[in-house]
Write a structure and sequence with these properties.
With 417 residues, this protein is mainly α. Among the domains are: 80 residues, Tyrosine recombinase, N-terminal domain (DNA polymerase, domain 1); 195 residues, Intergrase catalytic core (hpI Integrase, Chain A). Helices cover 54% and strands 5% of the residues. The strands form 2 sheets. The protein has a 3-stranded antiparallel β-sheet. A two-stranded antiparallel sheet has the order 4-5. A hairpin with an 8-residue loop joins strand 2 and strand 3. The longest helix is centred in the first third of the chain and has 23 residues. It starts with 10 loop residues before the first helix and ends with a helix. The relative contact order is 0.07.
């Protein structure tokens, strides 16, 4: 019995070969469809009309950017062309997935079997898909010298940071060893260390202005992040059981490097946290009355305590307002506040407050450490609160703190004015 190999089609090649489109149209279509494909793959959506509608609403009709009528008309024509192309692929029973998408899906499948965390899976899959776009063909992607060229391109042309270079290297090692099952992997490339950037720090007056301009539903989360020095991922993944109001302690589970630690709960937010927990409990009780699936419990813990996701102490401290599909289990669950939603709220508040610095939610963590240092808190204590493995990482704040030994120097201009 012969096995027929499935035909693979590439929209880029078919678009370039199209005879009814001008070079200008092909250029515009390629730009839009590349944008759509990146969004679709990143969002885990299948090619088709549904993902095109989601893309159009969230990306093309974005409130942040005003589009010209000719752009919208051309982009609508590009989407229509792509949907017709998909139908033609189905009629031929052809595989329409691009090389980056096929490589990404293969990497995600292997990563799940290896038991990698969801964040690691996403990171590796993203880099492997990017490498696939760089390689252009499956034959090139299987060559280690092509991967070496890609890593060198990141260093020499893209000037990526050292941590980004290491991410890409680890992802490619995973691709060749685990996905392609290559015994020996060697990339003849030298990563280049980059200088650590000075963090963005807000003054206490700017923190006050930011909080005043922030939408009320994000106010408590922002105050807790600044008051406890939490990373964004640590903040939004807090559960009810992690808050100890009597001792004034918040426990961070599986922080960076998989380590647990504790930090302080500001006395000024304890009453608001108490009221917030009452409102959150009402949301949890509604979910229980409606027999909802409960929240996700990570890894082996979820298998050992299968009913823990429905218990109060495991509920999110900052739950999302609506439910969504859990990508790991496929169940409809209540997730926590989304990182992008909170981060965008912080950026909008910074603009309203007239802060000209490049502000993200992580600036609240930087400001926490810097203000502690300015208040004469010792570095070791700040290191412990932040969860840094090396005190050298914490020392970066000495370069931005005021009134410290390193910067406690008066300008000669001030002495004569």
């Amino acid at each position: 019995m012969s096995i027929t190999k499935r035909i693979r089609c590439c929209w880029r090649k078919d678009l370039n070969a199209s005879r009814d489109l001008t070079p200008s149209q092909k250029h515009g279509f390629t730009m839009l469809l590349s944008w759509y494909e990146n969004f679709r793959i990143r969002s885990g959506l299948k090619a088709g009309r549904h993902s095109a509608v989601v893309f159009w609403k969230k990306q093309v009709l974005s409130e942040d950017t005003e589009r010209q009528s000719w752009q919208l008309n051309q982009w609508a024509e590009a989407i229509s062309w792509y949907l017709r192309w998909l139908e033609a692929c189905k009629l031929r029973n052809a595989d329409h997935r691009s090389l980056p998408e096929r490589m990404r899906q293969a990497a995600e499948s292997v990563a799940v079997r290896r038991g990698l965390s969801r964040r690691t899976r996403q990171c590796y899959a993203c880099w492997i898909a990017r490498y696939g776009a760089f390689a252009e063909t499956a034959r090139n992607a299987m060559r280690q010298d092509c991967a070496t060229h890609f890593l060198g391109w990141l260093v020499e042309e893209k000037h990526c940071s050292f941590s980004t270079q290491k991410q890409a290297l680890n992802a490619l090692v995973f691709f060749f060893k685990d996905v392609c099952e290559v015994d020996e992997v060697h990339f003849n490339v030298r990563l280049r260390k980059t200088h650590r950037q000075i963090p963005t720090v807000l003054s206490q007056e700017e923190i006050t202005g930011l909080l005043d301009a922030l939408e009320q539903r994000y106010h408590l989360a922002a105050r807790l992040q600044y008051g406890s020095g939490l990373r964004l991922g640590e903040l939004i993944s807090l559960r009810v059981k992690d808050i100890d109001l009597q001792r004034g302690v918040v426990t961070i589970r599986k922080g960076k490097g998989g380590k647990d630690r504790t930090s302080i709960i500001p006395a000024s937010v304890r009453d608001d946290l108490t009221n917030h927990l009452m409102a959150v409990r009402a949301s949890w009780e509604r979910d229980r009355d409606l027999k909802k699936s409960g929240v996700a419990i990570p890894g082996a813990l979820g298998r050992k305590f299968s009913k823990a996701g429905k218990e109060w102490e495991w509920f999110w401290l900052f739950p999302a307002s609506s439910e969504s599909i859990d990508p790991d289990s496929g169940l409809t669950r209540r997730h926590h506040l989304h990182e992008k939603v909170f981060n965008r709220a912080i950026k909008r508040a910074a603009q309203r407050a007239g802060i000209t610095k490049r502000v993200s939610s992580h600036a609240l963590r930087h400001s926490f450490a810097t203000h502690l240092l300015e208040n004469k808190t010792d570095l070791r204590t700040i290191q412990s609160l932040l969860g840094h493995s090396d005190v050298k990482t914490t020392e970066i704040y000495t370069h931005v703190a005021q009134e410290t030994n390193q910067l406690g120097v008066q300008s000669p201009l001030d002495a004569i004015i």
